[in-house]
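Lab notebook, bench 4. The sequencing result for the construct came back, and we need a structural model before the next group meeting so we can plan mutations. Quick request posted to the team channel:

Model the 3D structure of this chain.
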Amino acid sequence: MEALFVNKATNKEELEKVFAIRKTVFVEEQNCPPELEWEHEEESVHFLALMDNQPCGACRWRKTDNGYKLERFAVLKEFRGKRIGQALVAAALSDLPEDAHYIYLNAQLTAMPLYARFGFVAEGPQFEEAGIQHFKMVKKG
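Done. Here's the predicted structure in token form:
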């Protein structure tokens, strides 16, 4: 069985791996504009997933005026379907402060079932972000 670990990315080397994964998934694969991809990095808490010591996924959370936003969930194509997304969501949620009462994210349509497993519910109309359809999802309970 493959060993999967999700840790906070705290040093420059780990952050570079996080950014490389996001560049591959969002900028190269999904054609997101790079300038949209690299914003709010300083105030975010970043996570790096490793499978058998290979960087394979990343995400982050940050405090906003509205509450706590989970963002930038990315898993490299060759590692998809191995529960890495679930591990990333769980790690980000468990790291939030205890008083985090409003937790939300903008989900790509294909990722909505993953977030629903963690109690996120779609709110409001479908919208486009970086050329991709999304729904805002809010954690209930």
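The beta strands are 4-8, 44-51, 54-63, 68-75, 103-108, 120-129, 132-139.
Will bring this to the meeting.
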